[in-house]
Amino acid sequence: MSTPARSGPTAGGTEPALVLAGLSGAALLVLAAVMGRRLWFFSDDWNIYADYHTGNLLEPFNGHLSLVPAGLYQLLFHTVGVGSYLPYRLCGLVALGILAFQVGRFSHRRVGAWAAALAVTAVVWNSAGNTDVLFPFLMNFSLPIAALVALWWHLDRDEPRHDAAAAAWVAVALATSGLGVMVLVAVVVELAVSRARWRRWAVLSPGVLAWGVWYLTHRDSSSVSRDVGAVVSYSARMFLGGTTSLAAGWRPGGVVLAVGFVAVVAVAGLRWRSLDARSLGALAAGAAFIGSTALTRLTITPRIPPDELRYRWAVAAYLVLAVVVMWRPRRDPDAGDDEDPASRHLSPAVARAAMAGAFVVLALGAVQLVGGMREWTDKVAGAAPGLRAVLFSTEAVGSRRIDGDMRLPLSYVPVTASGYLGAVAAVGSPIAGVDPTDGDLMGGTEVARLEADRILVEQLPIRAVSPPGDTASGECRGTPDPAAIPPGSTVEVTGGVAGPISIARFSGSPTVTVPADAASTLLVIPADAPAVASAGRDLPYRIDVPGAALHLCR
Q: Are 479 and 470 in contact (CB under 8 A)?
């Protein structure tokens, strides 16, 4: 088993460095909390809301056990509700804070305080961290990586309470996402290489055994790419994406860091002799993440690029941690393993220059991260009104009239109308406080608003029919404003219907059409479902029937 480097305070150095490490993590959390004020539920949030609102925590999410993030969301659903996104954002930021703390604590013991501050900054301020910082469900990335570092911390302390904590972290990692498997890979490699006692294997096994039972009973079958060339290419691009993100997004700098990382591994093995059980486990975790992602993502459509932001962020974190574990530079090549860590450092001038250069690069990456966070916030906040319109239409149709298998345009992973409306009935509606008059439903993309109108036309359904007799004009006398037709109306079209009637409630102009012909002179617009009728009272329909006159029927 690896022995942790014993690090003691260095005069005038440790305390400021540790303060810097803490400030680095705290500053990111504060910035993310402020910049994310306009964020709302997005993408995978909807899958958890629709499918895990009252249970199903052992059902695979995207092929993986996601008990921890789905369970935390479910807890929030039933305690604070879905009226505000803030509690969910705070949950994601807490996970990031745990990661920063674990990296700082572990790195301080291994490589000293200033290097620990550098490691924390490199992980949490990574230039590709837009989504990992602002999208709370991506705690399924930050928590397993934090669990790996915490596991190392506890394995270095051969005491029963630390053994129990290590076992708990293994279980948490495996119950959080597929990245938990990388923790399992790291610990298996470390225990095997170090020829750990059977007791250590047994102590860490409960979570692994539980996960194994889950895998055998709940796993999703997934195809694996057999194209060796494509897998190698995808893996290489993932690796380069991680180093590029550490180089402030500059590809030439990423190439330099990629070569440098390979050189560090070579030096660690040939000169420092630090490729011990821990180092091999750390390298195995990153390699397993890259390899497994390449094998499984090449077979899905649409194909996820290897330099996708969250992949770059995770690869970069694994690389930083591997360097922290391997790093053993010594000024005295003949010094023994039990020397004081201070004597292992490079010459003061070289160390200061290297540290300063690294912080400059990370500062440039932080600037890029802030810009990316702003773009992500604008994207998610800008899409929210259109998504609310889709949800409003879904609730306006209601569970009794809608096709429950209809897929809502909320996430890449399917969200069905029945799943969404079931969650509304169980834990409340995320649009319960929406005011149609203040623009909450009328922004967003035109595509989303057209989809909201299509749902109303097809699912209510809005239809054009023939009158029951020769005419219905005796009951249709009012002359309505074609831009202000209330839900629950029947409108007579006189003067001839030449083709489909165009209608809109959310889109910019009446575009969605209702099939009609010369005999179909009554346009029937059913009322909204009772649960949303009052909320939609000021949200009229607009219709367009060129050359025709309109009359509102009783």
A: no
